[in-house]
Design goal:
By secondary structure, this protein is mainly beta. About 10% of the residues lie in helices and about 40% in strands. It has three helices and 26 strands. The strands form six sheets. Strands 2, 4, 5, 6, 7, 8, 9, 10, 20 and 21 form a ten-stranded mixed sheet that branches. It starts with 7 loop residues before the first strand and ends in a 21-residue tail after the last strand. The relative contact order is 0.18. The N terminus is likely disordered.
Amino acid sequence: MPFAKKQYKIFPAWRKVNFLLCMIACLFTLSGCIEEYEADIPDEDTSLLVVEGTIYSSTVNTFILSRTMPLKTKGTEQPVTKAKLSVRGSDGSVYYADGYKGQYFCEVGKLNPDEEYWLHIEVDDEVYETEPQHPLFTEGIAELSGVQHTPESDIEILVTTDKPANSNQTNYYSWTYFETWEVHPAHTTYLFFDIPSKSPIYMPNQFPERGWKDAADPSIIVGASTNYKDQHIKKYKVYGIKRDDERIYYRYTTLLTQRAITKAEYEYQLARRQADSEMGGLFTPLPSALPTNIHCLTSDKRVIGYVGCAMNTSECRIFLDHADYSIDRKKVDALQWYRDCSRDDCVLNASSGLYLCIWEDHSPAPEGLVTAWTYREYLDVTCQGAYIEMPPYWEE
């Protein structure tokens, strides 16, 4: 498949600063150093302002501000809670943000593609700003599909963008996705053991028959159209799902969000990927060395982050059904069988938290009463972290 080597999943490298420093210390120890090694890291490199977010048109923008922590401090980052933040434009427009626990929410009006916009931050007697940018227009998504090349291979989620406006230059994109999948309990039961009467009761709606789980992947996937004809990305692998993953056991959907980005933001995301994948290497750059478009106007303090500017994003949703793929579903047998047991034994089982699943009374046959029991976690999908209210988009 063309361009497969340019698929990248980006994770915040600065969140592993402590881990990086510890790994450097371990490398010196393993190489035969007798004296204890202590990384000589300047204080300003372990208390860096971290900015996450994108300027979007006609919506509420979310920006996250934090600081990296010193090596000996528990935790890897600290929320910045007392900053003044605003989005500003070359046309004189200003949109102010409200903050809550390090997250800042800014309702931005419709952006003008002919104007430039930037993020303005005031915190700890310092002023920071991003480089002014024109908001980028994002093409739509022409196709989103799930493909399994062989019965033993994983399922690949492939995206094809709409034809780009300019086919003579490289186009850069980022993708994020939000997943929802259906889950079923390992076992079902229509019985309930009533302790006072020492007998089973028919109870069909005791537990939900199915539920749903959601996941918003924190990674950012980026790609470039360099190796595609007419700079048009086609059937690009965004991510994969293993055939034995519970997400694909029954029914699955993903909502893919696409955004056009600049070459500079693309290179920043690649640098983040390298810092994350090579964490612990002696030649891996510290997070403070990552490229950024955010600068301090009042001092030489360094910043981590890159803030893009978008006129719009494009979304596409697909559904995958397990019957259309070769799925390796892991079956769980959690039933506990009791043969020739008494009703008093059943009372003990129910009192200990077991739920009745099977009741076979063969009396006066030799095997007598045969029952099967299991714990609630194998019957109730909410014990797996699922919710039971059907998502509004599920029947699409």
